[in-house]
Design a protein that fits this description.
264 residues; 9 helices; alpha/beta; five-stranded parallel β-sheet; Rossmann fold
């Protein structure tokens, strides 16, 4: 009888954050141990998050506080992916209107682009900021209507908080879509750029996407042609996975990250 584990089939793990390795300020029980064991077996690790409001340094610091011993370069955010998408499409020095936090501004600047706050821009990049208001959306509306490239870091409609679900970046993107009749390019899950860039950064040939949401993590894996593991520590349920058309179901379903080290 083979003693092959699920992890043995893959050379890298692209792991979601909230609902997968932690819930708010608490680590999911056993998650840190499962990730540590994956490291000892040589698996590449990327923590892949649609959250564009926090820097990789901030995310890594939070993970370290929870016992994950994470390096900054093991974090891949939709802000990084969104900035990369812009940089691939416009020349260095291009003015980019940034709707987002200082973390997104820093990613744009790091790619040789000029972050601005007015409609005099050739590109717009949009990530969640809880301080975003009508005036900022108005500037972006003018820029987009004038033909600016528009990249959304993610289109998550809601943001889970201790108070319940609040408006996410997708809600703000929807406002601009309504005002401009335009559609943005999307970097985060379920679009593929974030996952593809994370896998490329590891040189991975057989990555496994791990997450708790069918609509972002698993759909993103399907779109990227990657295998996936749905863990039942967050949003989606096994019944919801089973109800999907076969081509949209996760490759595996497990109670938590410990399934990586068991028999598939």
């Amino acid at each position: 009888m083979s003693d092959e584990t699920l992890l043995d089939r893959y050379d890298a793990l692209l792991i979601d954050l909230d609902g997968t390795v932690y819930r708010g300020g608490q680590a999911v029980p056993g998650a840190a141990e499962a990730v540590a064991e994956a490291r000892t077996k040589g698996a590449g690790i990327r923590f892949v998050t649609n959250n564009a409001s926090r820097s990789p340094q901030s995310v890594a610091a939070h993970l370290n506080e929870l016992g994950f011993e994470t390096a900054e370069d093991e974090v891949s955010t939709s802000a990084q992916a969104g900035a990369a998408m812009v940089a691939e499409r416009v020349p260095p020095g291009t003015k980019v209107l940034v709707l987002g936090t200082s973390a997104l501004v820093a990613e744009i600047a790091a790619r040789g682009l000029e972050p601005v706050t007015t409609a005099d821009a050739e590109a717009v990049v949009q990530g969640l900021s809880q301080d975003l208001g009508w005036r900022e959306l108005a500037e972006a509306c003018v820029a987009i209507r004038n033909g600016a490239l528009w990249v959304a870091c993610n289109v998550d409609r809601t943001l889970p908080t201790e108070r319940g679900l609040l408006p996410g970046n997708g809600a703000m993107v929807a406002a601009l879509k309504a005002a401009t009749d335009a559609e943005p390019l999307v970097a985060g899950k379920p679009a593929t750029p974030l996952l593809e860039q994370a896998a490329k950064s590891l040189g991975a040939h057989r990555p496994l996407v791990v997450g708790d949401r069918l609509d972002t993590d698993i759909a993103g894996a399907v779109n990227a042609g990657m295998d996936s593991l749905l863990v039942l520590t967050g949003v989606s349920t096994r019944a919801e996975a089973d109800a999907l058309p076969e081509e949209w179901r996760p490759t595996y379903v497990g109670a938590d990250l410990s399934v990586l080290h068991g028999l598939p």
